[in-house]
């Protein structure tokens, strides 16, 4: 009962946040929390691969970029927001499936290297394909007359508050979908694969098929976030989708707790919000040190809480089992 009350209070607070800040000097907070929401959507998608399947993906931002550029190009062509968003998700999923067909035969570091390479290839292609992506200058949607407004029923989205609520409800949808999948037969199969592929194969789980489903499903989250980002920002450039963004996204999932839905949300909140908080808290002389302080904090979490801040119960038992056995022996 207490858990339901806490969740209800958190939802109400999230809904009320833009109303409290939109007409104040802290209205920029709405944009920051909207950005947190987009990273949460991507974090949930990456958690399917890293947390549920146990596969290391270092190029996840490439699919965020594909979703964003698809939305930008279709919007410039006069396509409405919702059809363009559907196409962004569909194309992202299709590219992910084409990549997954040969790549999912690899394991461990080899898979990480291939996904890293794909992420860099995607960024370089976007940066050099001037005739389509406009190269490093990016694509602007601000002054184009063909751009149709973003609307939900009869509500036209134009402000940060409007997009905050769109991101909020999309995030809720992604959380519900992820939770349902995790508790399904498919989710249990993913966790079996993560623990021991040989044992999972012997129990009758089709490894390639299950990996492909999780690999492709994760890309849908990235395509969704990328499509929303393109219309919210009204500008996309290759510099928004670098390798370091992928690394930070992995750090969010690991710090929060791999395989944990609330842990992923907490990890994203910490990695995105703490530097912004330090920017306002520290004095001007110490402001340039905020990333050093933040990095030290992340290292401390990795050393003293390797299971993450809010780990899944299964993951916490796995990491604490050797310690418990040692205590019993002593």
Could you please describe the fold and organization of this structure?
The protein is mainly alpha-helical. The chain has a single domain, classed as ABC transporter involved in vitamin B12 uptake, BtuC (Orthogonal Bundle), CATH 1.10.3470. Helices cover about 75% and strands about 5% of the residues. It has 14 helices and four strands. The chain has a two-stranded antiparallel ribbon. A hairpin with a 2-residue loop joins strand 2 and strand 3. The C terminus is likely disordered.
Keywords:
330 residues; mainly alpha; ABC transporter involved in vitamin B12 uptake, BtuC
Q: What fraction strand? A: under 5%
Compute the number of helices: 14
Number of strands: 4
Stated plainly, the CATH topology is called ABC transporter involved in vitamin B12 uptake, BtuC
Order of strands across the biggest sheet? 1-4
N→C terminal distance? 39 Å
Total domain count: 1
The proportion of residues forming helix, as a percent range, comes to: over 70%
CATH class: Mainly Alpha
Largest sheet: 2 strands, antiparallel
Order of helices and strands: HHHHHHEEEHHHHEHHHH
What oligomeric assembly is this protein in? single chain
Backbone shape: globular
Examine the secondary-structure arrangement and name the CATH architecture. Answer: Orthogonal Bundle
Query: Mean of residue pLDDT?
Result: 86
Rg value? 21 Å
Counting helices, strands and paired strands, the structural category is mainly alpha
Regions with little confidence, pLDDT below 50 for 5+ residues: 323-330
């Amino acid at each position: 009962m207490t858990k339901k009350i806490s969740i209800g209070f958190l939802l109400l607070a999230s809904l009320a946040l833009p109303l409290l800040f939109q007409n104040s000097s802290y209205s920029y907070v709405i944009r920051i929390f909207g950005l947190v929401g987009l990273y949460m959507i991507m974090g949930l998608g990456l958690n399917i691969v890293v947390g549920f399947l146990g596969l290391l993906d270092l190029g996840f931002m490439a699919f965020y970029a594909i979703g964003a550029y698809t939305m930008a190009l279709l919007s410039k062509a006069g396509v409405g927001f919702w059809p363009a968003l559907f196409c962004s998700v569909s194309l992202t999923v299709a590219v992910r499936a084409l990549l997954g067909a040969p790549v999912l035969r690899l394991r461990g570091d080899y898979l990480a290297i291939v996904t890293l390479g794909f992420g860099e290839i995607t960024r370089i292609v976007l940066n050099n394909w001037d005739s389509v992506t406009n190269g490093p200058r990016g694509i602007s949607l601000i002054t184009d007359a063909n751009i149709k407004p973003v609307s939900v029923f009869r509500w036209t989205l134009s402000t940060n508050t409007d997009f905050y609520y769109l991101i909020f409800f999309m995030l809720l949808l992604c959380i519900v979908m992820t939770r349902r999948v995790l508790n399904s037969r498919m989710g249990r199969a993913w966790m079996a694969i993560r623990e021991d592929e040989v044992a999972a194969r012997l129990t009758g789980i089709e490894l390639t098929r299950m990996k492909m489903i999780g690999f492709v499903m994760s890309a849908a989250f990235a395509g969704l976030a990328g499509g929303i980002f393109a219309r919210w920002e009204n500008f996309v450039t290759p510099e928004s989708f670098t390798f370091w963004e992928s690394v930070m996204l992995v750090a969010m999932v690991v710090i929060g707790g791999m395989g944990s839905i609330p842990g992923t949300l907490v990890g994203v909140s910490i990695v995105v919000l703490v530097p912004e908080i330090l920017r306002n808290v520290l004095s001007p002389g110490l402001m340039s040190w905020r990333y050093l302080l933040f990095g030290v904090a992340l290292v401390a979490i990795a050393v003293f809480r390797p299971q993450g801040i809010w780990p899944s119960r299964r993951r916490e038992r796995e990491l604490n089992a050797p310690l418990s056995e040692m205590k019993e022996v002593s």
